[in-house]
Description:
Layout lengths: L6 H6 L2 H14 L6 H14 L3 E5 L2 H11 L7 E5 L4 H9 L3 E5 L13 H4 L4 E7 L8 H10 L3 E5 L7 E2 L2 E2 L6 E5 L13 E5 L2 H10 L21 H12 L1 H18 L13 E2 L5 E4 L3 H10 L27 H9 E4 L7 H18 L3
Helix pairs in contact: 2-9, 3-9, 4-5, 10-13
The structure holds pyridoxal-5'-phosphate (PLP).
Pyridoxal-5'-phosphate binds next to helix 4 and helix 5.
Amino acid sequence: MIEYESLARSNAEFMAELEQAATRVIRSGWYVLGDEVSAFEAEFARYLGVKHCIGVGNGLDALILSIEALDLPPGSDILVASNTYIATILAIVRAGHKPVLVEPDLETFNMAPACLPAALTFNTRAICVTHLFGKPCRMDAIGAFARDHGLKLVEDCAQSHGAKLNGKMTGTFGDAGCFSFYPTKNLGAIGDAGAVVTNDDTLADRLRHTRNYGSKLKYVNDYVGVNSRLDEMQAALLRVKLRHLDGMTSHKRALAEVYFAQLPDWIAKPMQRDDEYDVFHIFGIRHPQRDALRAWLLENGIKTEVHYPIPPRRQKAMTGILSGSYPIAEELHATELSLPISVGHSEADIRTVCALFDKATPRFASA
Ligand SMILES: *Cc1c(COP(=O)(O)O)cnc(C)c1O
């Protein structure tokens, strides 16, 4: 059986360093907002080439606190991809605004810049882009659109640690870049964790308050904040993983190369462009008989996932919040299949998956 991902296997590679970091934190006697968090923030900011990094509790809070810190008029329209993971949309709602869906490009899964003008209203104040599956959005076109219309720009980078467009890191194009370090992400903690990165001094200062009850100086509260802090343990473990991020990314990209070279033609593979550095958080293919193909692969020893089975528009929680029809999102949610691609997989594992696809050809090629 080839697993979709075994986190224990992915993290085993760094076990000695992780254990050493965990021990250091336990012995230090200081567990929330301390030297490890400051060091991780500095190291992650340097990695991305951005001025500030503010550690928070998780990726959803990174988004909520960033959007809130933009100080937009309550109930502003914020443009967001119709096929994003639900968290991006939840954050807009939680920050007191209205998500307005923009269709993605069928080939890239990412927000289609050409669909932005039709979604614009007089109430639009921001765009929240998601670099889905580790592929950078077209920030050249989206950034230009935001500038032309005076819109703020927030990037959901929960799936795109280290992804680049024209050599520039995702998370550094907009007003704020929001990261999740949920264990399955490309830079994953051993629990929940997140961060916001920004070049804006005022925004950074605001976030350093709001993540911690609205207080930077103990018992002095300047804002109505929340408790969403990155803890010392996760920061120390993330410092270890960050040192290996480029290596992990190279490994995933090598696995993707095997897929590109060996998957049969009847599979719609991820789109590749020379100016994009895709980090393959997910290797998402498309097939019209996705569910039958997935079941057949499982019978034959390969576990896969679907990202995601239900489009945001169809979630019960979005009743009264989202409306309209989004055929591209519907198509992607109905046909997407995620193949194994992780630090714990070898190129031989991926060749095994590809060989099984060859065996599936007579059954699934004509669909
Ligand atoms: C994982 C994820 C989030 C949320 O991150 P958490 O740390 O789980 O809160 C937000 N957006 C996207 C696109 C994600 O994949």
